[in-house]
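Saturday, quiet lab. Running sequence design on the structure tokens for the scaffold JK sent over.
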């Protein structure tokens, strides 16, 4: 009997944690206020996938327990096989979604070289004066202080710089610019990267670091989202225009 209780508690724990993770993800990527802004979408997707996986695991265990109690385990093998197949599909799909920019193979041949579309604003309400004031102050920080160069930048740091709450900053960006905070900041990073790609001979990896990206994959993904091209392709296109 004690084993039955232990099994039930584990199943309930998995189910509860899964539901909590999915509930947390409902607010969009800006809910992950401590995550680096160049990689927050990956963290957000991982949060969703983990929540869904925990719930699926709990449901699978419940079905197996029910099968053992009612049908003496007649269908347990089929349940396990089905669950394994679904898990493999989910994991392979997750791998494809997390880093779509890895298709940017020409990067490997660039001198020393090493779109995210899932983010959506958390609010569609019209901006008020407070939102516009916060957006203007944030624009100034980005343009004058090049705050986007900080690789560890996250929503908490932005809010502290502005003396506002993370919720207020996220809302202002969502309403005034129509994007999430990570897309907003990474837009400045991509703009800086484009300048460096056009005006210098530095490697793509070095440019990514100077622009504020910590990883090549996040840089490629955001560059593709903003410009519709890989960094190498964009550099070649600009170079051919100036020739």
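Result came back. Writing it out in full:
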């Amino acid at each position: 009997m004690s084993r039955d209780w232990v099994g039930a508690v584990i199943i309930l724990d998995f189910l509860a944690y899964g539901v909590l993770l999915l509930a947390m993800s409902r607010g969009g990527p800006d809910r992950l206020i401590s995550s680096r802004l160049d990689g927050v979408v990956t963290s957000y997707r991982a949060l969703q996938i983990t929540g869904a996986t925990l719930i699926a695991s709990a449901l699978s265990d419940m079905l197996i327990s029910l099968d053992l109690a009612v049908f003496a385990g007649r269908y347990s093998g089929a349940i396990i096989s089905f669950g394994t197949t679904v898990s493999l599909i989910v994991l392979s799909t997750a791998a494809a979604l997390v880093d779509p920019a890895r298709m940017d193979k020409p990067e490997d041949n660039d001198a020393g070289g090493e779109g995210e579309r899932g983010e959506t604003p958390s609010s569609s309400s019209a901006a008020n004066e407070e939102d516009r004031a916060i957006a203007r102050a944030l624009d100034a920080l980005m343009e004058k202080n090049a705050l986007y160069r900080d690789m560890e930048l996250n929503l908490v740091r932005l809010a502290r710089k502005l003396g506002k709450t993370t919720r207020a900053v996220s809302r202002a960006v969502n309403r005034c610019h129509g994007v999430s905070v990570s897309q907003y900041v990474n837009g400045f990073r991509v703009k800086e990267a484009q300048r460096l790609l056009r005006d210098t001979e530095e490697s793509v990896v070095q440019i990514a670091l100077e622009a504020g990206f910590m990883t090549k994959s996040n840089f490629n993904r955001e560059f593709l989202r903003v410009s519709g091209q890989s960094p190498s392709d964009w550099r070649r296109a600009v170079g051919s225009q100036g020739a």
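Notes for JK: The mean pLDDT is 77. Residues 38 and 186 are 6 Å apart (CA to CA). Ask whether to fix the surface positions before the next round.
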